[in-house]
Every structure is written in structure tokens, then in C-alpha cells.
Design brief:
With 328 residues, the chain is α/β, with parallel strands linked by helices. It is 37% helix and 12% strand.
Length: 328
């Protein structure tokens, strides 16, 4: 009897098919979570054969680097240590390693876990352009004896010089250095600036609960960023100290890039805003500062916690990489 053979598709056709696993929305997202259909499909393809693995694995690393537990951080860190070439595929990352853990667990095992986070960030520094960070940096550093690992963590973040988009969900990226002689935290002005000022390619910056007091230098540091385009401030403090006319004039005078304006987005619940509603565009030449307030939707009963509500709303928008003009 004649035998039949299953036709073998050329790798180019297989690659074309695998590329259709990801929709345009999937491709634009910062990172797809493990339960997402595209993530599960790409993971299955990595396990199906050597051919499909070679085609699906770069897509899995590029679009599905969603680390929502310390175990995922540890596994990825160990994988990149064995094969450092995989790191070049990871250009965007969601990092939330403590989402399911109590404060006691974070404190007691923090040194071990932070060492993996530091190692991972250093490995990704040449390729990472987008990062959404959901870590309780303020509450992690209650123990003063953590000075060494805290400084190592800051240095790991400082290495991310390719970043163009950054969001810190829970704070302003709280990473003060510790003076080795006094054991005290250094302020922004003396001698360490915020970590994000070292990311010269940064275009979009989203921070939570920033102290925007005029004498705390926040807008001075922003003005020194040559490529910054959009800043999203969620539940920021002391914005009422600034008049928008004064801020606009300050930016035009002090911005390191005189050919680029700034869009400032202020996020809070409607009752939480400390400034009046505003939708102020840049000047006709597109320079200066445009300011817009956004209200985070609340339920009919309004019984949610404003802090968590605002944090999760911004996180969701950033993870989906939604155009900021469409936020509502």
C-alpha cells in the first residue's frame, strides 16, 4: 500500500502563522499576563517542537514579560544567567514581585528577593525601553540595616539608561541613597537626584504621590530631561503651590530642550484633586506646558479606597499602552 507523509511547512510559513497569535493591541501592550490567550499559546508553541520554539520564544519574551511574583523573577533571572542572549528580546517589562505577599514576608526575606531583582534589572539594562513597576519601595525599607541592598537596588535602576517609558505605580520611585558614614538618607538635592534623571532617553514618566513643592526641585529635574514629553502625576502633593502661568514660564526658561514642550497629566478621583479642573494646551508653537486633570471613575457608592483605585487605574492604562489622549 502506498504510504502517505504529512507535508512539512517551511519555517517562513510557520513564522507567519505564529505572528498572528498576537493582535495589534497585544503587540502594543507593555506585557501580557500569564492567563492571556496569546501568552499561553506562545508558551505551548515553545514546548511543541524545536522549530516552533525558535520562532515563538522571542515573541514570548518580548511581549509577555509579566512578573507578578518573586518566583517568576527568580526563574527569569536564573534563565538569563544560563543564556544571557535571551535578554535582548525583553524590551518591555511589568515588575510586581510582592503582589501576593504580606509585609512580614517582604521584610524577612527581602535581601534574598531584592538580589534577584537587582540581577535581573542589570541583565535587562541594554535592551529595556518600557517598564511598569509596582513595588512598595517606601514600606520595604523600614529596617535601617538594609542600606547596602537598598543602594544596590538604586544602582540597578540607574543602569536602565535605555528606558523611554516608565511608570512607578506605588510611589515616586523611592530610592534614596544611604550615607555610609551617617546611615542617613540623602535628599534629592544633596547629593543624589531622582534615579529617573539618569535615563536620558525617557519620554513618558508616570509617578505616584510626588512632592511637587517648589523648593523640592521636582520640576527643575524634569526641565533638565532633554527628551521628556509627558509626565503623569497621580495624587501628587503641593501642586496647588504652582500657578500654571508660572510653571509655563518656568519651563520655557529652564527646559534643556527649547524645541519641546511638556504635557502634564494630573490624575485623581474627582473629590481628591487639590487643583481646579483644567485642560490647558501648550502655546501655538507647541512649547511650554500643557496641563490636564483626569478623574478616575468611582462606583455609585464611592466606597473604594482612593489610593488603590487611582494606582490600579493608571497601571491598567500604562500596561495596555493606551494613548494618553484617550484616557478617560
Amino acid at each position: 500500500m502506498p504510504t502517505t507523509t504529512t507535508p512539512i511547512l517551511p519555517p517562513e510559513i510557520i513564522s507567519h502563522i505564529i505572528n498572528f497569535v498576537l493582535t495589534p493591541a497585544d503587540r502594543s501592550a507593555i506585557a501580557l499576563p500569564p492567563p492571556h490567550a496569546a501568552t499561553k499559546t506562545l508558551l505551548s508553541l515553545c514546548r511543541a517542537s524545536h522549530v516552533t520554539q525558535s520562532l515563538a520564544r522571542p515573541l514570548l519574551y518580548r511581549h509577555c514579560a509579566y512578573l507578578d511574583s518573586i518566583s517568576r523573577v527568580k526563574r527569569l533571572d536564573e534563565t538569563l544567567r544560563k543564556d544571557p542572549t535571551l535578554a535582548q528580546n525583553i524590551t518591555s517589562l511589568y515588575l510586581s514581585p510582592y503582589v501576593e505577599e504580606t509585609s512580614a514576608v517582604v521584610y524577612n526575606n527581602g535581601r534574598f528577593k531584592l538580589s534577584h531583582i537587582c540581577s535581573l534589572l542589570l541583565a535587562l539594562s541594554p535592551s529595556l525601553t518600557c517598564l511598569v513597576l509596582d513595588m512598595p519601595l517606601r514600606t520595604m525599607f523600614i529596617d535601617e540595616n538594609w542600606s547596602e541592598i537598598r543602594n544596590q537596588l538604586r544602582q540597578a535602576f540607574e543602569s536602565l539608561t535605555m528606558l523611554e517609558v516608565f511608570c512607578s505605580v506605588q510611589d515616586e520611585l523611592y530610592l534614596p541613597m544611604i550615607d555610609e558614614e551617617t546611615g542617613e538618607e540623602t535628599s534629592w538635592a544633596n547629593p543624589y537626584a531622582p534615579t529617573w534623571t539618569l535615563w536620558s532617553k525617557l519620554k513618558i514618566l508616570a509617578l505616584y504621590n510626588v512632592d511637587a513643592t517648589a523648593d523640592r526641585y521636582f520640576f527643575d529635574y524634569l526641565a533638565a530631561m532633554k527628551k521628556i514629553e509627558t509626565v503623569i502625576l497621580t495624587r501628587a502633593d503641593c501642586l496647588e503651590e504652582w500657578s500654571w502661568e508660572r510653571l509655563d514660564a518656568f519651563w520655557k526658561e529652564n527646559s534643556a530642550n527649547k524645541d519641546r514642550g511638556l504635557d502634564l497629566i494630573l490624575v485623581n478621583t474627582q473629590g481628591g484633586h487639590r487643583v481646579d479642573d483644567i485642560d490647558l494646551s501648550r502655546d501655538k508653537a507647541g512649547m511650554g506646558v500643557g496641563v490636564k486633570t483626569l478623574h478616575v471613575p468611582t462606583s455609585y457608592y464611592g466606597d473604594e479606597d482612593d489610593i488603590e483605585l487611582c494606582q490600579k487605574w493608571v497601571e491598567k492604562k500604562m500596561l495596555a499602552a493606551q494613548l494618553i489622549d484617550t484616557w478617560s
